Amino acid sequence: MTDHSSNLPFTVAALYRFARLDHYQSLQEPLAKLCCGQGIKGTLLLAAEGINGTVAGSAAAIKKLVDFLEAEPAIAGMELKYSFASEMPFKRMKVRLKKEIVTMGVEDIDPLQSVGTYVPAKDWNALISDPDTILIDTRNDYETAIGTFAGAVDPQTKTFREFPQWVENHRDELEGKKIAMFCTGGIRCEKATAFVKGLGFDDVFHLKGGILKYLEDVPAEESRWEGECFVFDERVSVGHGLIEGEAELCHACRNPIAPEDKLSPLFEDGVSCPNCYHERTDEDRARFAERQKQVRLARERGEKQHIGS
């Protein structure tokens, strides 16, 4: 485990592995029991194609969970990244059985059969600096809004299900190029590169360990990353060294907002932000303003509130 901000009380583990996991249903109960018994919170997804999730707890608790998972032969050697949090970044623990551990909406995509070439973080800059490389951000628009790699193509997708159609629409632009793709932790690119390879493209690459691994391993002074990386927990974002970022969530639309967004006349705490102001009615904003008022009053009374939970 890399010692980045490891003096913070909560260890966050982002993990996944594509594997033949025919007995995945039998893992749900023991995993839930272990996590709840150790005070771990977050989400783990189990499917016949493997495991995916992000969880947080004490360092000792997370070690017990990782040891449990690594003892499963099919899961051993999973992609695993650690970061740290000053407060528990999840509200509850969920272990869910799913059809897929990441959904792209295309049948018969199997990263165990065909996948792009893995590129370690230390070699990523050289690949994406090549003029023959097209760099594609496979994440969704609300994620790319607060940070991405310099020069990356943003497909502006709302969900990962839209990504295959975007590729189909831009096939001519991808012909004859090296195609480099990246996502937060690497799992979406497993399926994205498998899909693109299935279309007949040969020079397909993806960032091993995703943005999180890059921000952990590559010094800021050498980095091609701009902004912060959105994460799916209460920290909202992380920066270089995987330290907690400055982004927050708009409690009206749940999209991330950067500090400069709060300077916009369209921003009102708990009511609107530049992302959602024009998508809401005056009645919506009045309702959100009343909710925010109740939250403020509850805080003044010392009650803990979770907006939008």
Structural class: alpha/beta
Order of helices and strands: EHEEHEEEHEHEHHEHEHEEEEEH
Report the top-level CATH class of the largest domain.
Alpha Beta
Unreliable residue runs:
none
Integer tally of domains: 3
CATH topology of the largest domain: Oxidized Rhodanese, domain 1
Radius of gyration, in Å, reads 20 Å
Largest sheet: 5 strands, mixed
By CATH, the architecture of the largest domain is named 3-Layer(aba) Sandwich
Q: Helix content range of the residues, please?
A: 25-40%
Beta percentage is 15-25%
Average the pLDDT over all residues and give the rounded result: 93
- State the CATH superfamily name of the largest domain: Rhodanese-like domain
Estimate the global geometry from the Cα principal axes.
globular
Strand order of the largest sheet: 4-1-3-2-5
Number of helices, counting only DSSP H or I runs of 4 residues or more: 9
Catalytic activity: uridine(34) in tRNA + AH2 + O2 = 5-hydroxyuridine(34) in tRNA + A + H2O
Protein name: tRNA uridine(34) hydroxylase
Family: Belongs to the TrhO family.
EC number: 1.14.-.-
